[in-house]
Write a structure and sequence with these properties.
- The complex is a heterodimer of chains A (188) and B (364).
- Chain A is globular and about 55 Å long.
- Chain A starts with a strand and ends with a helix.
- Chain A has one domain: Rossmann fold.
- In chain A, strand 1, helix 1 and strand 2 form a beta-alpha-beta unit.
- By secondary structure, chain A is of the alpha/beta class.
- Chain A is 43% helix and 20% strand.
- In chain A, helix 1 crosses helix 5.
- With 364 residues, chain B is an alpha/beta fold.
- Chain B has a single domain, classed as Luciferase-like domain (TIM Barrel, Alpha-Beta Barrel), CATH 3.20.20.30.
- Chain B is built from eleven helices and twelve strands.
- In chain B, the strands form two sheets. In chain B, strands 1-2-3-5-8-9-10-12 form an eight-stranded parallel beta barrel, surrounded by eight helices. A two-stranded antiparallel ribbon of chain B has the order 6-7.
- In chain B, helix 6 links the parallel strand 8 and strand 9.
- In chain B, helix 1 crosses helix 2.
- Chain B is globular, with a radius of gyration of 19 Å.
- The chains are: A alpha/beta (188), B alpha/beta (364).
- Chains A and B meet through helix 5 of A and helix 8 and helix 9 of B.
Chain lengths: 188, 364
């Protein structure tokens, strides 16, 4: 199983801190899982210009291909201006419409204020659903006060991330078994 | 369609003669997924010529080849290959599906295809498209931001060249033409020029507004969805002052026949899936493919009788004049393609012709 963590912002460290924790939690849960963290701050992505993702070069090609090859994706996003950052939306725009078909996607949000709680529900989840993801039902919402100097200081948040990781892995296995049973039945 | 005049004669189509049946290849050059091996580009190009010959012998009306400029394709110089096909065949109509007009000079395209028309004694057609894979814009030095306008302008010019022997024209993407005579002229003075359309109404409406015949490509999905596209095309043509009864419609999509539907799906699926992964970055979901033998699905895959039923149903719904099938995608072995052509010729074509001839088109 391949799980890609996607830290969706070009700036700030909070989301990265939470994503680092999530990636370690995957390894602790099951060291056999192949993981990769993509922090958009480390890549120079082109803005989507409408071409098929296989036709990009460089970082854009590397990031989109890694996402397309993943079995599951954990998206970490901050909230900017009451929405997801443009950098993350651009990743979605770079991918084909059904990019997340047969993939499990889970969400981890960091926000400066609890007032942003519904942003993931109302803005991020519809995009993921449109792109055919099996979205993990619960997401982890992290406020600025839960992180201090690069460490998660809320046990509630760390335990929630661990549960999110477990849900992501178990659902990925489950969907994969369901799919393989169904595809065997087609006999072609 | 009644009376002695043939309203689609301009496009060398007689609707009374029944649905035209053709074969097309994108010109892909992909490994066979069951062996992982790929024939050489030379072998692949010569296969196209052999397919055209076999299709002609089997009684197909049309054979066409697409232009593509990316990895896993061998038909970059599609007009050159069509020249060879013109020489190797005698009566089958030949064309491009599609010529990527946006990145070519319409004058050169017309010169090439008028030449193919003369070589073939009046059998050449152009299907002009905008490219679904856009890597060629960079390769050939065009800006992807001009995607729409490049095509619209060049398509207008190409059709003007076809209509007028002496052309005066100015535009944005090519030097002006002043009293320019584009030679040679096709055998009948002009030749059929179609517009390639993806499955969506938006693009079909553009074809209708221009009064250009349409080749509508379809990957998968229900026949009924594509009926909307064809209706939108004819409505747009009507609103723009063209008579839809003069405008042929062709549909283009996967075609694969075997003894049983199960065998057809088993043989074809790996090619479609892995071919799509290589050329588009994502495969064909098995669930969608499993519906391909259903009469409501537009994919023409199954036993000979299933394919006859599907094509007749599509004809009833669309009232189209030509269906062209893509059999060879994704490294289907040569013998399998030839086998398909043979079964189509002996078992499918006679029934398709029998039940579509003289019924006329939908708006007749």
């Amino acid at each position: 199983m391949k799980i890609v963590g996607l830290s969706g912002s070009n700036v700030g460290a909070t989301t990265r801190t939470a994503m680092d924790y999530a990636m370690r939690a995957i390894q602790e849960f099951d060291p056999e899982i192949e993981t990769r963290l993509i922090d958009l701050a480390d890549y120079d992505l082109k803005f989507s210009d409408g071409r098929d993702y296989v036709e990009y070069e460089g970082d854009t090609k590397e990031v989109t291909e890694a996402l397309m090859e993943a079995d599951a994706i954990i998206i970490g996003t901050p909230i900017f201006q009451a929405s997801i950052p443009g950098s993350l939306k651009n990743v979605f725009d770079l991918l084909p419409v059904n990019a997340f078909r047969d993939k499990v996607v889970s969400i981890l949000v960091t926000a400066g204020s609890a007032k942003h709680y519904l942003v993931a529900e109302q803005q991020l989840r519809p995009i993921l659903t449109y792109m055919k993801a099996q979205v993990v039902q619960s997401f982890v919402f992290i406020e600025a006060k839960d992180i201090h100097r690069g460490q998660i200081v809320s046990d509630d948040v760390s335990l929630r991330i661990e549960r999110l990781v477990e849900d992501t892995v178990v659902l990925t296995q489950t969907y994969s078994q369901m799919r393989s049973a169904r595809e065997t039945a087609y006999a072609f | 369609m009644t009376g002695a005049t043939n309203s689609m004669a301009e496009y060398r189509i007689n609707p009374d003669a029944g649905l035209e049946f053709g074969m097309y290849t994108l010109g892909d050059h992909l490994p066979n997924p069951s062996t992982g091996e790929r024939i050489t580009a030379g072998e692949r190009i010569r296969e196209f010529v052999e397919y055209a010959k076999a299709a002609e012998q089997a009684g197909f009306d049309f054979f066409s080849l697409g232009e593509s400029h990316q990895e896993y394709f061998a038909s970059q110089a599609h007009a050159v290959i069509l020249g060879a096909i013109a020489q190797a065949t005698e009566k089958i109509k030949i064309g491009s599906t599609s010529t990527i007009l946006s990145t070519s000079d319409p004058v050169r395209v017309y010169e090439n295809f008028a030449t193919i028309d003369l070589l073939s004694r009046g059998r050449a057609e152009i299907v002009a498209g905008r490219a679904s894979r856009v890597g060629l814009f960079e390769l050939l030095g065009y800006d992807l931001r001009d995607y729409e306008e490049l095509f619209e302008e060049k398509f207008d010019l190409l059709r003007k060249i076809n209509r007028e022997r002496v052309v005066n024209w100015t535009g944005q993407f090519r030097p002006a033409l002043r009293n320019a005579e584009v030679l040679p002229r096709p055998q009948d003075g002009s030749m059929p020029i179609w517009r390639a359309v993806g499955g969506t109404p938006a693009s079909a409406i553009k074809a209708g507004m221009a009064g250009a015949p349409m080749v509508m490509a379809h990957l998968g999905g229900p026949v009924s969805s594509f009926t909307h596209t064809i209706d939108a095309y004819r409505d747009a043509a009507q609103r723009s002052g063209f008579d839809p009864a003069t405008l042929p419609v062709a549909t283009a999509g996967f075609l694969y026949v075997a003894e049983t539907s199960q065998q057809a799906m088993q043989e074809f699926y790996p090619h479609v899936n892995e071919g799509m992964i290589r050329t588009n970055g994502r495969g064909m979901p098995k669930q969608l493919f499993a519906q391909s033998t259903d009469p409501r699905s537009i994919m023409n895959i199954g036993s000979p009788q299933q394919i006859i039923d599907k094509i007749l149903y599509q004809h009833e719904q669309f009232g189209h004049q030509r269906f062209i099938g893509q059999i060879d995608f994704g490294g289907v072995p040569f013998e399998k393609v030839m086998k398909n052509i043979e079964i189509i010729g002996t078992k499918i074509l006679p029934d398709v012709k029998k039940y579509t001839a003289q019924n006329g088109s939908k708006q007749a």
